[in-house]
Amino acid sequence: MGIVRIEDALRLAREADLDLVEVAAMARPPVARLMDYGKFKYESAQKDRNSRRNQTNTVIKEMKLRPKIDNHDYETKKGHVVRFLKAGDKVKITIMFRGREQSRPELGFNLLKRLADDVEEFGFVEASPKQDGRNMLMVLGPHRKKSEAKADVDAERDAKAAARTSDAEAEQAERREMAAASAAAPKKKKKKGPADNMDPDIDL
């Protein structure tokens, strides 16, 4: 509209049934727009909500092991690491040394190398093993991005929900067919026995 007086801008806003909104107060002269401010706030809130829903936060999970961990516990811990990596999360592996175990850091190094080799299908070594006081640390990174893993999880959840809905509908349809068949079937007459021909007034 160009440069107009405030009174004229307000009159234009009233005639168009819109709001006069200042968008650049520091400009000379200040800049204002004619808009539906309520609609603008609603659309902005929707955009913010969608962006928050789609954003992915990098999460670092932690798994602690002992140098002399038994095979069963190792397999359990490895399963957790695989689950974290498949979900797109980083995993910090901590080997905790106690007492004289600190004099044998190769135990921790070999254990970390074994774990990295076992999960290489799902992740890679992002930070090589290093000693940190009584602990030895290693960071594993996922091959897949968090957003990709989340999309797969959402797709799998939707597929399961669709399958459950389909099964429920099929079960209901089968019940309706059975009920219809039962209603259409002729009823069998009850055969009369000897007692049915007796006089009801006769005491037996």
The level 1 CATH classification of the domain at 60-147 is Alpha Beta
Give the CATH architecture of the domain at 60-147.
Answer: 2-Layer Sandwich
Average the pLDDT over all residues and give the rounded result: 83
Q: What is the CATH topology classification name of the domain at 60-147?
A: Translation Initiation Factor IF3
* Share of residues in strands: 15-25%
Instruction: Give the helix tally.
Output: 5
* Backbone CA Rg: 37 Å
SSE inventory with pairings:
Elements: H1 6-16, E1 19-24, E2 31-35, H2 37-54, E3 60-65, H3 71-86, E4 90-96, H4 105-118, E5 123-132, E6 135-142, H5 146-184
Parallel strand pairs: 3-4
Antiparallel strand pairs: 1-2, 4-6, 5-6
What does this protein structure show overall?
It is built from 5 helices and 6 strands. By secondary structure, it is of the alpha+beta class. Among the domains are: 6-54, Roll (Ubiquitin-like (UB roll)), CATH 3.10.20.80; 60-147, Translation Initiation Factor IF3 (2-Layer Sandwich). The strands form 2 sheets. It has a 4-stranded mixed β-sheet, covered by helices on one side. The chain has a two-stranded antiparallel sheet with strand order 1-2. The longest helix has 39 residues, at 146-184. The termini are far apart. The mean pLDDT is 83. GO terms for molecular function: ribosome binding; translation initiation factor activity.
